[in-house]
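call fold(seq) -> tokens
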Amino acid sequence: MVVQDRKLIAGNFSEPGTSGLVGTPVPQTRARRADGGYRITGRKMFASMLEAADYCAVLARHDEATTPTAGTIFFVPRDAPGRRVEEVWDTLGMRATRSDSMVLDECWVPDDAVMVQTDDIVTFRRKAANWLWGSYTPVYLGIGAAAYDAIIEVVRERTPPGFAQPLAYHPDVRRHVAEMSIDLEAARLLVHHSAWVSDTEGTTPRTLAALYRAKYFVGEAVTRVTRTVMTLGGAHALFKTSPLERLFRDGAIAPVQFPPRDFCLAGLGLLELGLDPREVLPPLRSANPDAGPVMR
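ret:
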């Protein structure tokens, strides 16, 4: 559809009540059979490119589902009756994604709108982790690299009045640049390694561990880099007309983007120790007595 029909598809799995920290697996959005198709009711959040996309992939729970983690993914077209967008995307960073909210009020879609129907959406998410959320990681790595390139240009070109050399010659600048270079190179190698493991092994515990490792380190490294860039840029970087200000805001939310830093560490610890999530006490008391930590 994307290649042949040149359609843009957005993804919308998050909801107002979900939390990336504990990995809420079951959507509150509901779908029921009606009028030769389905009617979907619910509220979705964080749908990047929602208004520009031709279709939005929406996760919902079918009323006839029989398992706790059952889920159905529908392709909801932009002009579907009962679908509307609420422009709420007024955020600290990543403002250009326009990840607004979508309200579905008895939104009707035909039978062929069903893309995935499974009794365990957690397993589906885990198998598709390399593109469901693993693809976020290099986006933030790119933000860190852009900030690094921008500050290199600034310190090479800015010579304070009364001095014969640009700021690049200052020892503190050189030290900060070296630290940022190390952070970015390590982050880049972890991202490349996670992509290589995913390509060569497919969906394995080692692949999931590599994706968690890369996302965690990229989030931490990019936050450090953009904060350092802001410091080196000085008061000139505080203006909203400065690209360093935007890169600082975008980099600040890298550890929050799913999967957030603590979720990555929790999942990676389970994988490295070879523990069964079902045998580990959940971080919060669950409504499902058989539930352990969710790893997706």
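The helical segments are 121-127, 129-132, 136-157, 171-201, 205-233, 243-252, 261-273.
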